[in-house]
Amino acid sequence: MALLNILRYPDPRLYTVAQPVAEVDTRIRQLIRDMAETMHAASGIGLAATQVNVHQRVIVIDVSETRSQLQVFINPELIETSEQTRLSEEGCLSVPGIYDTVERSERVRLRALNEEGKTFEISADGLLAVCIQHEVDHLKGKVFVDYLSALKQMRIKTKMKKRAHAR
Ligand code: NI
Predict the structure, then answer these.
(1) How far is the CA of 163 from the centre of ligand 1 (A)?
(2) ∠ at Cα 114 (110, 118), nearest 5°?
(3) Strands across the sheet with 119-125, in order?
(4) Spacing, Cα 95 to ligand 1 middle (Å)
(5) Cβ distance 93 to 44 under 8 Å?
(6) 127 φ, ψ (degrees, to nearest 5)
(7) What is the Cβ-side half-sphere exposure of residue 128, based on CA atoms within 13 angstroms?
(8) Which of 98, 106, 114, 116 has the most CB atoms within 10 Å of its CB?
(9) Distance (Å, rounded) from C-alpha 129 to C-alpha 45?
């Protein structure tokens, strides 16, 4: 197991579009273990491979209060998104300390492969639905900050750059 380095916004590598996983092999399973460890160590509820500079369609999510219910989605595809939306506050391990409101579909249906390479589908609402949409966005090279106003994006970039210099 290993902790992976998480790319920080506005790192241009966060804008890379991830490629589908051709085969769920031991390398992918190792990546998943490392991503899960990295997410839990950073107290995050979701992490996309894009954020650890691996540009393949893999996400891990754990929205449980006990941080013990890991969900793994390989090649995730949103097959249904409700027209009904909700506003909720989001944050991101790639944009630490920044939280803002984003509008997302209230309910989604997702198809993906599991760690055995088998296709499955789930329906989600609430926090899990928000998290799924946030992580699938990462695989498309999109960060939640991209939904905010140009002014807010500029402020966040300035804040992140100052912080990077301070480190
Ligand atoms: Ni994120």
Answers:
(1) 18
(2) 95
(3) 46-48, 58-61, 71-81, 107-113, 119-125
(4) 7
(5) yes
(6) -60, -40
(7) 17
(8) 98
(9) 12
* Spacing, Cα 44 to ligand 1 middle (Å): 9
- 49, 36 contact by CB (below 8 A): no
Residue 78 has pLDDT above 80, yes or no: yes
DSSP state of 42: T
CA 7 – ligand 1 centroid, Å: 10
Distance set, CA 157 to CA 38, 96, 153 (Å): 24, 12, 6
State the pTM of this model.
0.96
Among 77, 90, 115, 135, which one carries the catalytic annotation? 135
| Residue 37 alpha carbon to ligand 1 centre in Å | 16
Return the pLDDT at 166: 73
Q: Judge whether 135 counts as a catalytic residue.
A: yes
Whether the bond into 20 is cis, omega within 30 of 0: no
Which pair of tokens denotes residue 125? 């609402």
- Mention every residue, 6+ apart, whose C-beta is less than 8 A from residue 140: 17, 18
